[in-house]
Amino acid sequence: MKIQVGILGATGFTGAELVGFLLRHPSAEIAWLSSESQVGADYGKVYPQFAHRISDKLRTLISIPAAQATEPDIVFSCLPHAASADSLAPFMANAKTRIIDLSADFRIQEVAAYTATYEHQHPHPEWLPQVPYGLTEIHRDLIRKAKLVANPGCYSTSILLPLIPLLKAGVIEATGIIADSKSGVSGMGKKATEASHYISCNESFSAYKIGDQHRHLPEIREQLSAAANGASLNDMLFTPHLVPMERGILSTIYTRFAKGKNLSDSQAALTAAYAREEFVRLRRDLPRTAEVARTNECHISQYAPAEGGTLIIVSVLDNMVKGASGQALQNMNLMCGLDETLGLR
Amino acid sequence: MKIQVGILGATGFTGAELVGFLLRHPSAEIAWLSSESQVGADYGKVYPQFAHRISDKLRTLISIPAAQATEPDIVFSCLPHAASADSLAPFMANAKTRIIDLSADFRIQEVAAYTATYEHQHPHPEWLPQVPYGLTEIHRDLIRKAKLVANPGCYSTSILLPLIPLLKAGVIEATGIIADSKSGVSGMGKKATEASHYISCNESFSAYKIGDQHRHLPEIREQLSAAANGASLNDMLFTPHLVPMERGILSTIYTRFAKGKNLSDSQAALTAAYAREEFVRLRRDLPRTAEVARTNECHISQYAPAEGGTLIIVSVLDNMVKGASGQALQNMNLMCGLDETLGLR
Amino acid sequence: MKIQVGILGATGFTGAELVGFLLRHPSAEIAWLSSESQVGADYGKVYPQFAHRISDKLRTLISIPAAQATEPDIVFSCLPHAASADSLAPFMANAKTRIIDLSADFRIQEVAAYTATYEHQHPHPEWLPQVPYGLTEIHRDLIRKAKLVANPGCYSTSILLPLIPLLKAGVIEATGIIADSKSGVSGMGKKATEASHYISCNESFSAYKIGDQHRHLPEIREQLSAAANGASLNDMLFTPHLVPMERGILSTIYTRFAKGKNLSDSQAALTAAYAREEFVRLRRDLPRTAEVARTNECHISQYAPAEGGTLIIVSVLDNMVKGASGQALQNMNLMCGLDETLGLR
Amino acid sequence: MKIQVGILGATGFTGAELVGFLLRHPSAEIAWLSSESQVGADYGKVYPQFAHRISDKLRTLISIPAAQATEPDIVFSCLPHAASADSLAPFMANAKTRIIDLSADFRIQEVAAYTATYEHQHPHPEWLPQVPYGLTEIHRDLIRKAKLVANPGCYSTSILLPLIPLLKAGVIEATGIIADSKSGVSGMGKKATEASHYISCNESFSAYKIGDQHRHLPEIREQLSAAANGASLNDMLFTPHLVPMERGILSTIYTRFAKGKNLSDSQAALTAAYAREEFVRLRRDLPRTAEVARTNECHISQYAPAEGGTLIIVSVLDNMVKGASGQALQNMNLMCGLDETLGLR
């Protein structure tokens, strides 16, 4: 009997990416696909590449209320923040269903930070204490048994995977961290806007929400602070940029070695953390985003310039996979007692 | 009588860009085009877009020795480093010709730094004392009367234009500067290599020569040190990245405010430096590289995050224009007593 | 005294392209910019690349009614079809203003064909008899003295320029013509739609409105029929395709030699038509769209396969320039008695 | 016991694509990877995405002579034409190994046509009579038992799949066929040339080898002639174009209905041929290349314009998959008695 899976918000990019992975998954099966905006539409017309691969019952997108009346084993929510939390109560109320939320609604433990960042009241702060942050390699034990998992942001994953073990091991300082990140256009989502118009993106490169303005920064700071024994990460900077390509994130991260520490220590710390992980690879050379496209992998390189006591880290991942739907599936596998790599290789 | 111009190494990207600008220049005229590798070839076949716009005498590429026997008013050298310095002696020896060298051969005043960076003996260290660094807005008075001008690197221009006035005014610290730069593929030059293959570049983003390894860093450090009263810039970091697009550089630069200084001071310093400049624009919003494509402009934005005392600068330019051939032409205009913007608007 | 120019619908791609050309035009000056959708907006924010190049009075977009109260020398209408014809009556009514309409409203002489194609009643069929089709090289004498000129479609220009002289000279048959055309994404216009989303266009190629469904076909057939002494072009096929790039059209056109005619005849016919034209180039090799990007040129190659009596023509142009705003400016120059190439080289 | 597979010429694009598929294949295993140009190199450095997925023994590329000394179950040759035939004799000589040749060496049955097209003497004309053309859906019975299979060209597959059943059924004429095809850049191969430079391909579209000059045309004509009872296809035209994208082919094919035939007949013929095929999909809407990227599918649409008796066919496939390595793997599955879709979904 295969795991029955429902997807809320299946028409967006992360929803479609999940569908693609689930259609190849040996132990899971899609039970329904819901949509906020295209109820009743034929999913095979929204994504012609799935037209002949999905069963007839999946072709017609159901409404979110209709979805809420069901009890699948796993629900993935690919809805926008706020809409996501609003739709999850019925699934939280039944005993059977477990939830992986790809929105930002449960990523930040501190309610005030959430409210300030997303500019609305948190709909379910009472659930937060039991929701682990779904960075699989870091919070595996909590995720395994969770009712609801908050799948991390794409930028966040590329920054947290290298930094958390380094901070835990005391190899780098918690202060003065700068993450300069670059993302493909799929990170903007499927909505047609002036910013996502081909002519706006093609043959152009730009920064946006520089320094301390991007919504992923609070979840990043919170996770890093926890790794650094509660040290403040308030001066951490994060600048996202838009790259004219479909998918991929590369983060160039500038950190300072803790007193007495050097490249051997940082290499040892990351090797200890990831040597046995399937989806995190430590590289000696510099990775290109294309080398991880359509995989659930994060590749990490380290470099220590001769002067200044800086450790520079370059990490790459696919924002749609390890940065979203792939990690969500990895979490599903973990929660269901399956091999984490199932359907992801 | 128009200014007679010779171009050494006309088949490369910067050579072709120069030809395009010069064909529209009201007061200058191309006298000859030379090539290292394609002597005798038809320039109209190398670049079909010029086929019907160049006169018959320009169509056949002459050899560099043949070029050296002539005495035009201005010689642009678009040759690679080393080859460039080697070919300039005859032009240095005649009284009439003035030279703008787009290679790296005369950008670094300190001979040891040049030798270490470019891994060969400097062919003409005796010329260095009289060669200004051709950042027009900064060294205008020296360039105006120079025999030989060292046209700056593309990355360097995007970093130096914002930082030099800030260091001169004491608004930012000379230590701890990080420049995270991103460039289009034309920066790699015209040579067909595995790295410049369409399939290597397209749909991928990568860092290269991170931290302290790129050849533009010594010239950047030298110029910044001069602006900072000789302070050491040895801990400055510079990480270039490759963007899947033809042209454009964006530099995201992280600096620290000097004690007691803030965003008003940095804005005042850059306004004082550039308010009357045609080709440097101070922006309140964040610039996209596409907004300066095919122009000789550098656009600069500043942002001061709430915490940490950091000033973040974003600058954009076209690596082929203000980063190379456009600035070379601006220097020619200046050296010849013309309006600097001639042929560049 | 410079020619005073008004632009209706200045926020679209063709409007912006016109503004760019006019800012460099030595004998014309923009009097106002209007907008249907963004009245009162700052044009320098809509297009930051123009922010410091336009005068203060141009920065604020005026309404179309406000525009209609003025009497510039030339009005360009970059409005959509129907909206364009609706806004032109006041300009038609004054003696001074002459109009170049970049919409489709006056391209088709036969009213029934217009109505069928654009699915609304023609607002001013009474103007049609005096409106020349603005293919400059073909209808120069009519355009020179016209009150209102219908600027051709982008695809149409790439197909008509090679075919009209061949049909006039009787070198090719009027039956069995197939035009297989490919266009960059700017041809879709500035509106943000699912089809113009970066992720829809990037890394994909597709056909649309194949065979006989595209709106440019009626104007193409009408012009070709006129060139062929009224022969029917009803079996002509035209298939447009979308290329993942900003600008450029390439049309591959399959035609049949008339009895007894061959490649020498077709070369002679096109040479006779275009040898003295600045903007049409006959090529021996195959042109790339990049070679005409940002120029007002159309490059044409011909090839006759050994078997079958076919003449294949490849033509390229920039859909935004010779395919729209450049040709409009060429028409303005012609109408105002200026050198046709002014501002276009 | 898994099928043992050797790959000759593993460093090219089709070799790497094969490796990617084989690493996920449940019943086959790579025994060795050979290279003409990079013997001894680490395959994990040539393609970093495979670095941690291939076993140690595969990492070092062996020489082609060393490969020839082995006897795997299946050898794929991804070598260039001529080199491929030259290296296959030892495998032909042993009883065990069966061969799938991705080069052009055995695609054309008529030796004179091969010699004229590839400009060298055919090294093994004596093998030709027993080599089926590896278009799986068409020549399944011959491929199943073949010693050596000639895997079709990428363009050829996109043209032959729709046309062969239509000619066999007598629905279309064999004369006057025009295939206007467009391909992504990976079709040019991995060699770094001026033509494959990013700056040559990006933001440009071009035709090449138009009409009757491309090397795939003889194999296309031969296969179509066979489908049309030996009718001459000598007047068939084929024009390939280069699209600025990585992968994908779209062919727009213009054919004439046979007397009395219409769209119902062509739909019936293709439905009869492909309704039960996994990898050929008949579409009512127009397919985009992105919809088949990284799949082994060919999608086909048909359209009959109102006038002229023409049937227009649009077909899309991934030139690297159904156009090369995917079809090769499909042939391997067929030859080994496996489910054809194994490793390909």
Would you kindly provide a written description of the structure presented here, covering whatever features stand out?
The structure is a homotetramer of 345-residue chains. Chain A has two domains: 3-152 and 323-335, NAD(P)-binding Rossmann-like Domain (Rossmann fold, 3-Layer(aba) Sandwich), CATH 3.40.50.720; 155-319, Dihydrodipicolinate Reductase, domain 2, CATH 3.30.360.10. Chain A is 31% helix and 18% strand. The first copy, chain A, is built from twelve helices and twelve strands. In chain A, strand 1 (3-8), helix 1 and strand 2 (28-33) form a beta-alpha-beta unit. In chain A, helix 1 packs across helix 12 (321-335) and helix 8 runs parallel beside helix 10. Chains in contact: A-B, A-C, A-D, B-C, B-D, C-D. The interface between A and B is large, with 45 and 45 residues.
